[in-house]
Automatic annotation (TrEMBL), chain A:
CDD domains: TRX_Fd_NuoE. GO terms for molecular function: 2 iron, 2 sulfur cluster binding; metal ion binding; NADH dehydrogenase activity. This is NADH dehydrogenase subunit E. Binds 1 [2Fe-2S] cluster. SUPFAM superfamilies: Thioredoxin-like. It comes from Chitinophaga eiseniae. [2Fe-2S] cluster binds at C80, C85, C121, C125. The keyword Hydrolase does not apply. NCBIfam families: nuoE_fam, PRK07539.1-2. InterPro entries: NuoE-like, NuoE_dom, NuoE_N, Thioredoxin-like_sf. PROSITE patterns: COMPLEX1_24K.
UniProtKB/TrEMBL annotation, chain B:
The keyword NAD applies. One of its GO terms (molecular function) is 4 iron, 4 sulfur cluster binding. InterPro entries: NADH-UbQ_OxRdtase_51kDa_CS, NADH-UbQ_OxRdtase_suF, Nuo51_FMN-bd, Nuo51_FMN-bd_sf, Nuop51_4Fe4S-bd, Nuop51_4Fe4S-bd_sf, Soluble_ligand-bd. It is an enzyme of class 7 (translocase). SMART domains: NADH_4Fe-4S. This is NADH-quinone oxidoreductase subunit F. It comes from Chitinophaga eiseniae. Residues 327-372 form the NADH-ubiquinone oxidoreductase 51kDa subunit iron-sulphur binding domain. Its cofactor is FMN; [4Fe-4S] cluster. The keyword 4Fe-4S applies.
Amino acid sequence: MLSAIEIEKISHELRHVPVKKAACIEALKIVQQERRWISDESVADIAAMLEMSTAEVDSVATFYNLIFRQPVGRHIILLCDSISCYVMGYTVLRQRLHEILLIGYGQTTADERFTLLPNACLGTCDHAPALMIDDDLYRDLQPADLEQILEKYH
Amino acid sequence: MERPLTQHIPDNGAALHLREYEAVGGYSALRKALRDMEPAQVSTLVKEANLKGRGGAGFATGMKWSFVPMNVPGPKYLIANADEMEPGTFKDRWLLEGNPHQLLEGMILASYAIQATDAFVFLRWAYKDAAREMRQAIADAYTAGYLGKNILGSDFSLEMQLHTGVGRYMCGEETALLNSLEGKRATPRAKPPFPQVSGLFGKPTIVNNVETLSWISHIVNNGEAWFKSLSHTADGGTKIYGVSGRVNKPGAWELPMGITMRELLEEHAGGMRNGYRFRGALPGGASTDFLTDAHLDVKMDFAGVAAAGSRLGTGTMVVLDDHTCPVGFVHNLEHFFAQESCGFCTPCREGLPWTEKILWSLENGTGEPSDLELLERHARLLGPGNTFCALAPGAMEPLQSALKYFREDFEQHIKEKKCPYAHHQH
Ligand SMILES: Cc1cc2nc3c(=O)[nH]c(=O)nc-3n(C[C@H](O)[C@H](O)[C@H](O)COP(=O)(O)O)c2cc1C
Ligand code: SF4
Ligand code: FES
């Protein structure tokens, strides 16, 4: 069931759009912000509220890279794996992250602290290699920087 | 050297807020247009300046606007494309974070020219600072009377919204962007009808790049002759160029349109790092053909780069050095394109993963001599005219040019059954 807050926020979005369906992505963002990920139940709840089929909502949810259809950790690490970061050695960062966190791409640490994902160009290529953790951007990275950065997230 | 777009952005990259923007002449173009100009005069001025779109394709902005039907009632839309997801591209970020009101003023003027009722900034998810600055700038512009009902006492009204995306390269393609704004999957639409006639929610819509729209206030204030005088070539204005890769000073600079690749690399990016040699570069992001050291005197404007067999694209260059494997470099690009293909049409959906797989087999030593021909066939079959949108043809540009310029590297991978580069970067 959608929470009162979720319903209120989605209703607010509905005021800005000519048809209910058009709020689908906003609704997914709102629910994900509250619950970290989008479960089958959430897909069905959003579908009911926006008068869409669950398949339609799911087709949108699964299309976008940053809508998560599986449980994720408390913090999301997005490692840029695009071209400038490739040239500047992101693969060494990936290796170091695997060693520290003992997880690969798409996996979550046992304590649910981090989920590690590759991400397309973060638009900071003159400071490659780069990664984001939640809303924070880290640039000009060296593998030795990683441990200290990860410390900040609990 | 004039730098109209970036000269007021503080060196630390912090945003120019409303009062500071007004203090350097901000919103004077809007006052002037609303007081002295008809909407059509704004369009005509932009057309005469011959402003070409900075989103990658270089389409003439005034011409694009002229396709909007003017005497129909009902909503019309103006959208700033701030999705910036082309790998190697980081130019719009600078304008969004540093001078948000310059973009807003340009958007309001563009909206006035086409008589739009609503405007959107479609911003990529990753640009958190830009989102904060844009949100603040929109709120401040409403308070100051630059947005909302009867702007500056005129009879022109405009509502503005910020939309942040949820991550997909295809959201930058203008018709896919419209679908995404309508809450759908970001797959492209058939053209015609063109968005100028039937766009967002079936209403006339203009989509322009951030850098393009950031020009409008300056052109309104200073005129078309001034705009043209900023450039070294027939394409007017300045351009935000960028360089990334193993150069001494990677970065972005606003420079006269049409500077040479050599000036950009050597004077601005400080040349190659010690111990690294230049082998080639993608001149304007991931979906442009390689240029090599034979092209260093090419003028980086739309016509100059096209004559050299590539595209100006976004104007942000990615450098390939002699310690980086060209096959691995192209594999990385094709991996990106295969991941981001929207799957709507078969050549791209099937062809890109296949391309990626062949390149990977070359890298891990299982490539066959026939693979080169197979790659060339892909470059042809996924090229212009064979797919539904420009993603796949763009993906083929670096591949086809790498096969041409770095052929011996591809052949060496097959002959030696391994990647000959020391650090195999996967
Ligand atoms: C796959 C794909 C991604 C694109 N991404 C962007 C983008 O992020 N930003 C942008 O301005 N244009 C992008 N474009 C180009 C747009 O479709 C469109 O041409 C552009 O926004 C028009 O603006 P302009 O006329 O001001 O250049 C992309 C095109 C394709 C095919
Ligand atoms: S070319 Fe690729 S991205 Fe474009 S419509 Fe076809 S499948 Fe989608
Ligand atoms: S390629 Fe990594 S930030 Fe652009």
